[in-house]
Amino acid sequence: PPCSSSSSLCVFEVEMRLEKCYFCSSTVYPGHGIQFVRNDCKVFKFCRSKCHRSFKKKRNPRKVRWTKAFRKAAGKELTVDTVYEFEKRRNVPVKYDRHLWANTVKAMKRIGEIRERREAQFIKNRLRANRAIELEKDKEVIEKGVSLVKLEDAARRIAQARLKKKLQKSVAAKE
Question: Cα separation of 34 and 19, whole Å?
Answer without folding.
Answer: 11
